[in-house]
Amino acid sequence: MPEYYVIPNEDGVKRLMKEYGLTRDQINEDVTTVRNWMLTQPHLPKFPESKNDELSFWIEGFLRLTKNNLEKTKLAVESHFRMKTLFPDVYDVNDLSNYVESDLFDYLTMVMFPKYTPDGLKIMYYSFKDSNSQLFRPVEIYKRMRLMLDIYQRKGIDFTGIHVVVDTRNITLSHISQFDLFQLKNLIKLAQKAYPLRLKHTHILFPPSFIDVAKNILKPFVSKKMFARLSFHKNLETLWEHIPRDILPIEYGGYTGNLDVIREEWKTLILKNSDWFLSNASYKSDESKRLKKKKSFSCEKISFKTLILD
């Protein structure tokens, strides 16, 4: 089984520690600082002693993602538990064994490729099985993304940035119309804090004829920085200018295995971590106990409604 997908690369860990000027003693001290802070926040969950080592390792991952910034780490931890409360559909882990064998799961391919770019970044990829949107659910994108990122958090972070590659050959206006854009904006805003990855670039492969329509719909809901890091590729040659071919699967002119094999390996990884997901499902924020009132998202009941396009 491909545990190598998520076992930390020691060279990557050393590179990050050197970049941030960190020592093991400093990391331990910062983890303790964050843990002590968590105890002062009544809205955050309380963990049993049996979770001590796991929690410390998890916080260390956030410290790496935030370049060892304590305040950003606290924000990431707090945002993570808040997301679990505000967006329960994204964090639903009931019956993962049946879920990964379902048509719903099969319709969306979302994986991390096993290799790293020369500068230590990971590649997140997704596409749709066909153009029939009946099996498409926007929540699936967020759910699958968080399953992958949480597995990396559990195993250990050895990267801080990603390329996102989206094959849009099967995307239609019917897919786009299913997004509730206001909820999408709220989710993205909170997710960027809860999973503080550096987005190097988003690559849209084989853009459809209506891509300008989609861009105009999404533009008000996506930050200018994210929009500036968006590229459209009508052929694979321009993608290879950004991502080396030895990192890509053979379907995209690369040399790193078959995409279907990578899909199956990620299914197995999710299943192998299903007990862990269940053991952490109840740890979420209690917004009624928050010390300082913050602006809410007005999303007492999160649902992914259909947006009607004129």
From TrEMBL:
Sequence ranges assigned to domain CRAL-TRIO in this UniProt record: 101-260
InterPro entries, A to Z: CRAL-TRIO_dom, CRAL-TRIO_dom_sf
Cross-referenced SUPFAM superfamilies: CRAL/TRIO domain
GO cellular component: membrane
Family annotation (PROSITE patterns): CRAL_TRIO (PS50191)
Molecular function terms from GO: phosphatidylinositol bisphosphate binding
Name of the protein in question: Alpha-tocopherol transfer protein-like
Species in which this protein is naturally found: Aphis craccivora
